[in-house]
Specification:
Oligomer: single chain
Number of strands: 11
Structural class: alpha+beta
């Protein structure tokens, strides 16, 4: 599959597995899982074009953000995180590192400094394990900025952190007191 077709199919898969499973006649099961066979049938019915298991395997293997995962049997698939529909991903709370990061666009800085990080239409705030990943995330919507999150301190203060299959850290919210703008550095 060429790169553009891969991106289009990946976006379709995100739409169905994260936001609108009903488009493909699906209901997300516990953990956000759906049967691969049902997904392939549903995608084909929705798009009018056949989607093969080989194409699905390529999307799962080559998605740069590793957004999708198969279960250990390879018969079920789910989006790793980022759902806007109600789903319990059945993740276990995990002790985060002392610092993790959030990449965003420069235009969001003032609101974040005032209100902290909120999940908005998602189930959780998404956090990156390192600065390069946060930069990449922030660059999707303009000039990137990166906040350091005092995640170790937050966890000690009672916040529950989760780590998705693709390494993204998830938390309900991040109050402003746990945030430090690290890129670009604030001039003072």
């Amino acid at each position: 599959m060429d790169e553009r077709a891969l991106v289009r199919r990946s976006k379709l898969l995100s739409r169905v597995l994260r936001h609108q499973p009903s488009l493909a006649g699906l209901t997300l099961g516990p953990g956000g899982w759906v049967a691969v066979d049902g997904l392939l049938r549903g995608l084909s019915a929705y798009t009018g074009a056949s989607v093969t298991r080989d194409e699905l395997d390529e999307i799962v293997a080559n998605n740069d953000k590793r957004r999708f995962a198969y279960d250990e049997t390879g018969t079920r698939i789910r989006a790793s995180q980022g759902h806007s529909v109600e789903v319990n991903l059945e993740l276990t709370a995990t002790q985060p590192p002392e610092t993790i990061y959030h990449g965003t666009s420069a235009r969001a800085v003032e609101a974040i400094q005032r209100e902290g990080l909120r999940k908005m239409r998602r189930h959780h705030v998404h956090l990156s394990p390192d600065i390069p990943t946060a930069i990449k995330v922030g660059a999707r919507r303009g000039r990137p900025v990166v906040f350091a999150v005092a995640s170790g301190e937050m966890a000690r203060d009672g916040a529950a952190f989760y780590r998705s299959d693709n390494g993204v850290w998830l938390v309900e919210a991040v109050p402003p007191r746990y945030l430090t703008l690290v890129m670009p550095r604030e001039e003072g």
